[in-house]
Amino acid sequence: MRRRVVPRGLRTRLVVAFVLVSALSALTTAALTFRQARAAILDRAQDSAVHDLRTQVDSLAPDLPASPEDADLRALVLQLDRANGARGWRTAAAFRGGAPVAVAAPAPALPARLRATGGTARGAVAQRFHHDGTPWLAIALPVTRAEEPSRPSGLVVYASFSLASQSRDVDTLVSAARAGVVPVVILSAVPALLAARRVLRPVRRLRSAAEDMAAGALDTRITVVGDDELADLGRTFNTMAATLQTDAATLRSMEAKARRFAADVSHELRTPLAAMTAVTGVLDADAAAGDLRPETAEALELVADETRRLGRMVEDLMEISRFDAGAAALHLDEIDVGELVGKTLGLRHWQDRVAVDVPTGLRARVDPRRVDVVLANLVGNALRHGGPSVPVRVRAGAVGDALVLTVTDEGPGIPENVLPHVFDRFTKGDASRTRSEGSGLGLAIAAENARLHGGTLTAANAPGGGAVFTLTLPRDPA
């Protein structure tokens, strides 16, 4: 596994960037300073050497050789070597076109380019070179006659000396520059930390405010200071928060009104529905006794079915209203799961159409009425959508501290576009059927009952076909 090399924290990245910029600036400044100082040291040594050599040559002007005689050149070189002082130069002399003549101990050979240009130059020519790893400076000084200063005499004096002392000075500059860069880089971390803290303070406030809003505190605002980009971001955040708070308040008000309306309508419908149910019950008795004509009995059966369906829808709406109002309560009791499943199927005369697989003695502490509602919804859906000839199975078992109930069928399954919304309110598996026995609230109520227990209800399609609903409840909820 590859590890991240780039630091992730914004503060760390700001400090690293600040330190890198400081280090680059310090190194650039040190490099430029070193270059200028090195050039100044070497140029000063060169100018001083040229001046000293010219002074010595001028002091010997009356006795300068006028012809390329070796004896005369040797005498000149000998005098110049004796006058070298602390510089320790090695001198040589030559007439134009001749080889340089030297009398002192062997010195580094003069650079060929210096010898080639020295005889034709009108002024002093200098060249730096290395010999045995040591820097040297060689000078070629054309000599002119006092009586004809503008006309070269053809005599060229050469001098070369070691720049070791100047090289040591340059090395000292390098060490000083290197030593100066390290404290600058270290000290730059202090203003970097201060700058990062100042820059990130509004970001931290913004993050804290965003976390508060995510927790539901929509009245959160941040204090905006300054006119920079971060201040603009803070003002934008405050505007967004105010808009969200207003919209949320509007939505909550509309939702509360809708819940209240549904609850009021459901409550108001119960009384006339009760009367209608009683009347249809009496008429059903007459129809059963043969006191009604066939057409009237058929119409009565249709009215009775619709009345019962409307009654179930009203009960579902009232149950949803209780969940929305937070008024739904659990009445826990320790029950035998097998007995509960048997009662649920028996009350609805489904026991012959559903296969049950529940271990003997499986017990759980649940609300029996609510679990009955969940099972009735799941099994009823499986029987309706799976078809009367398609087997439906109910299985139960303990998985750790949880009770797991599954209801499966071998029907066509749940359409893929419906599966993510199967527990939404008023969702039906077949959208083409505008009227069906269900209200579209059964699975939503089942999911709410599962959550009320602290459990879950999930839906999926089996690999071999058919729908699988899985109810998971804690066996002993706290």
From TrEMBL:
EC number per UniProt: 2.7.13.3
Coiled-coil residues: none
Keywords: ATP-binding, Cell membrane, Kinase, Membrane, Nucleotide-binding, Phosphoprotein, Signal, Transferase, Transmembrane, Transmembrane helix, Two-component regulatory system
Cross-referenced Pfam families: HAMP, HATPase_c, HisKA
SUPFAM superfamilies for the chain: ATPase domain of HSP90 chaperone/DNA topoisomerase II/histidine kinase, HAMP domain-like, Homodimeric domain of signal transducing histidine kinase
Database matches in InterPro entries: HAMP_dom, HATPase_C_sf, HATPase_dom, His_kinase_dom, HisK_dim/P_dom, HisK_dim/P_sf, Sig_transdc_His_kin-like_C, TCS_sensor_his_kinase
Protein name: histidine kinase
Organism: Streptomyces spectabilis
